[in-house]
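F.,

This is the one I mentioned.
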């Protein structure tokens, strides 16, 4: 059986694509946002130097939340609430630079998104295991699950570029991220084979 024919697996897969899409939308254009979205704008040289530090801002909370959320999920025997919460936290992080288009806001957004992504990564994987349609095909089906990450990471930057070209600015990227990642949370609700 093909894993995506299973409704539960398909919904979890769609949620993964959407969340990864939203995450990659926000990260890809950081260097450009520093030059033309935030106030005061940075020079190209300043933005080039600072943009990689957005990833560093995300790392500590991402690592901590990965450890603690994974343990808590196992202890409670619950997956769906954690995946939904991580999606909503990520969507909320995108509101920060909408409300405050400043450099500190970009770093706060990166840190909060790191928290959300750290919750999402281990528990989303566990959720996929919970909804596998056939344990004998786990390797193949988890490979299909991984394609969700790859697809989201591939189309996110492309879509972000299209949004910028259509709207003439970067505000639309954040708004798109809010909508898409909120849809990722909604996509988990119909899943019946996991708690």
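My design for it:
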């Amino acid at each position: 059986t093909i894993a995506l024919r299973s409704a539960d697996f398909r919904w979890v897969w769609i949620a993964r694509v959407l969340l990864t899409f939203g995450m990659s939308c926000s990260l890809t254009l950081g260097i450009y946002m520093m030059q033309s979205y935030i106030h005061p704008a940075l020079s190209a040289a300043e933005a080039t130097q600072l943009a990689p530090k957005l990833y560093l801002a995300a790392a500590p909370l991402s690592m901590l939340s990965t450890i603690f959320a994974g343990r808590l999920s196992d202890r409670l025997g619950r997956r769906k609430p954690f995946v939904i919460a991580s999606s909503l936290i990520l969507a909320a992080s995108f509101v920060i630079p909408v409300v405050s288009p400043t450099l500190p806001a970009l770093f706060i957004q990166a840190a909060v998104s790191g928290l959300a992504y750290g919750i999402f990564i281990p528990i989303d994987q566990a959720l996929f295991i919970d909804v596998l349609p056939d344990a004998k095909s786990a390797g193949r089906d988890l490979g299909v699950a991984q394609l969700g990450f790859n697809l989201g990471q591939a189309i996110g930057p492309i879509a972000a570029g299209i949004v910028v070209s259509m709207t003439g600015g970067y505000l639309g990227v954040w708004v798109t991220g809010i909508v898409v990642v909120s849809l990722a949370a909604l996509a988990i609700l119909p899943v019946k084979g996991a708690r």
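Residues 44-76 form the longest helix (33 residues).

Talk soon.
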